[in-house]
Design goal:
The protein is mostly helical. 84% of the residues lie in helices and 0% in strands. It is globular and about 50 Å long. The termini are far apart. One of its GO terms (cellular component) is plasma membrane.
Length: 201
């Protein structure tokens, strides 16, 4: 019983920070109108790279930040800037932002913004770094939680097509604009978190 409670103390904060439900809505907005093959590729990229980023920072995040002199507030601001740009584009266009530099939307969307900064954002990275400073049991539970959460995200994304078909293209455009405002809100919250950590708020 105690082990289950200890696991939930690790799993629940990570679940809240990664937020598979919000990620699902953004995934549906960004992949609206894409075929099943493209959605599958984006799902694979988001889950694979998002998981790799979090596991990487869980294992060596502290050393990386110390070596490059990067602070947690700096990560918060960087992630916030990326999300703010994405949110503005979503509100303006009511559709997925166009890819840049001749790259395909699949390669863009799966990694940025889904894998990072949404799934493996500054909040999640900061949390796993903190959790990995605990006991051996906490370290193991953190790694297991990351794997379980990205499995949940994969399942959510896999079944998103059915929800997309249920709503239709016009409704998805409206949802995209609404969620664009929320994404911009997430971005501003990242900025506020950074200011709080710096003692400026």
């Amino acid at each position: 019983m105690s082990l289950a409670v200890d696991f939930l103390k690790v799993f629940i904060p990570l679940f809240v920070v990664i937020d598979p439900f919000s990620s699902l809505v953004l995934f549906m907005s960004l992949t609206s109108g894409m075929d099943a093959k493209a959605k599958k590729a984006i799902t694979a990229d988001a889950v694979l790279y998002g998981g790799i980023i979090l596991i990487f920072f869980a294992l060596v995040g502290n050393f990386i930040l110390l070596f490059f002199g990067i602070s947690i507030p700096a990560l918060e601001i960087a992630g916030g800037l990326i999300l703010l740009i994405m949110g503005i584009e979503m509100v303006r266009q009511g559709d997925k932002p166009p890819s840049s530099g001749g790259r395909s939307p699949v390669s863009d969307v799966g990694i940025v913004p889904l894998a990072t900064p949404l799934l493996a954002g500054p909040g999640a990275i900061s949390l796993v770094i903190i959790l990995m400073e605990g006991s051996i049991a906490t370290k193991i539970m953190t790694m297991v939680s990351i794997v379980l959460l990205f499995l949940i995200v994969y399942i959510f994304f896999f079944f998103s097509g059915r929800i997309d078909r249920l709503f239709g293209d016009k409704v998805m455009k409206v949802i995209t604009r609404i969620f664009g405002v929320l994404v911009a809100g997430f971005a501003v919250q990242y900025f506020l978190n950074a200011l709080s950590l710096l003692g400026l708020k």
